[in-house]
Design a protein that fits this description.
The chain has about 110 residues and is mainly α. It has a domain of about 35 residues. The chain is about 80% helix and about 0% strand. The protein starts with a helix and ends with a helix. The mean pLDDT is about 80.
């Protein structure tokens, strides 16, 4: 009886030891992935912040006026109000409409 209990307790201890080391290794791998992803997120945030800074700088009225002075007011043409999209869904809807019209025109030309 003593030998069976000893064998069972040693086998349970060994099993838990192996499971613990496997879980520890998986945890370490996940921590490394999280760290690398957090570095990537930080770099992407930096890129976004730089792009926003450039946008705000280039779209400031004084910068626009400087650029207009370089190219001349005669060459400047404002964007038509109908070409300004306030939402991405509006742009996608317009592209779907124009692509359907192009396809219909192409089919009519092929039929002739």
């Amino acid at each position: 009886m003593f030998d069976i209990r000893l064998i069972i307790s040693i086998s349970i201890f060994t099993t838990f030891l192996i499971i613990t080391s496997a879980i520890k290794n998986k945890t370490r791998v996940l921590e490394k992935e999280i760290t690398s992803l957090s570095y990537e997120i930080l770099s992407q945030k930096k890129i976004i912040n730089e792009a926003q800074l450039e946008f705000f700088y280039l779209s400031s009225p004084s910068e626009i006026e400087k650029r207009l002075n370089l190219i001349g007011f005669d060459n400047y043409q404002p964007i038509a109000y109908s070409k300004i999209y306030f939402d991405l869904s509006n742009l996608i809807d317009m592209q779907k409409k124009t692509s359907n019209l192009k396809n219909l025109n192409e089919q009519k030309i092929e039929k002739k």
